[in-house]
Each structure stands twice: as C-alpha cells, then as structure tokens.
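sry for the spam today, last one i promise. struct tokens for design, 163 residues
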C-alpha cells in the first residue's frame, strides 16, 4: 500500500527514518547536531543534488534492481514504499523494495567500486538502518520473522499494523 507520508521536507521532521538512524548511531557529531536542528525546524535539510555519490546511487538504483532480478529470477515489488509503524509514530522507512515470494527486503546501496568491501559497506551504512527498517516493518508477519532472525530478535510478530 502506497502512503502519503513525507511529501515535503517538512513532513520528514515528524519521523526518524533509516538514514536518520545511521546518523544517530554513528560517530559524526556534526551530522547528529545537523539532524537534530533539521528535526526541530531550525535548519534546512542538506541539498544533496550536488553530491556525486548520492546522485550515482539514485541513478543506479533501478539498474541494481533490474540486475538483481535478472540474475536471481526474483521480482522486486513495493519499490519506494513508505511505511510507518502504527504504534511508534516517529518510526518510518522508505523501502527500496521487497523480494517477491520471500521474506526479504531489497536494499540498494551504492559504493564506489574502488572503495567497496563488505567491511567498508558495514562501516558506511552500519546496522542502524537495517535494524530501523526491521523494527518499522515489525508487523508484516513473515517478513518480520525473517528480519527479526537477521537482527537476532525473536518475538511474536502479531501486533500493530503499518500505515
């Protein structure tokens, strides 16, 4: 189900998303203060239109998805679906997609090829966004079971629903 969440930058002030979780759980004090100021409405969100890595990530997301689909034979659905936890109003996420017929969230992250390693990816993106998305999705039943196992959580998935 598509949602009308966060149509404008001002809407983003009302929740914590996966990218916010990365900043909150990271070590960059300046980025944390900037996020705090943005959420309070004291600062504008950074304009990333001139950030090459961000633009390359946006430009290659469809390529990554189609490459994954072609090489696995599995379709990615719910692209850019916005979900919000129904009981924790500040928790939300935008999904890169869900792998159809599985319990997996498709996550397309971009790293420059000469700087790529699994260790560098974990350092750059950390576990915060993955855990955040897992919690935001906690009410999707089987998907929750899969994500919970991935994050070491073991609990019943019956609870509030996503909006």
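last one done:
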């Amino acid at each position: 189900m598509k949602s009308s969440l966060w149509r404008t930058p001002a809407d983003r002030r009302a929740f914590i998303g996966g990218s916010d979780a990365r900043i909150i759980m990271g070590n960059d004090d300046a980025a944390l203060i900037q996020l705090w100021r943005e959420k309070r409405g004291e600062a504008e969100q950074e304009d990333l239109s001139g950030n090459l890595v961000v633009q390359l990530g946006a430009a290659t997301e469809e390529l990554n998805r189609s490459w994954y689909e072609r090489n696995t034979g599995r379709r990615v659905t719910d692209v850019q679906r916005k979900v919000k936890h129904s009981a924790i109003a500040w928790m939300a996420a935008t999904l890169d997609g869900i792998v159809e017929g599985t319990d997996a969230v498709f996550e397309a992250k971009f790293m420059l090829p000469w700087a790529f390693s699994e260790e560098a990816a974990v350092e750059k993106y950390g576990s915060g966004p993955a855990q955040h998305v897992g919690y935001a999705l906690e009410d999707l039943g089987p998907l929750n079971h899969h994500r919970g196992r991935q994050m070491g959580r073991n609990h019943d998935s019956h609870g509030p629903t996503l909006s």
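The first strand starts at residue 76 and ends at 77. ok im logging off now
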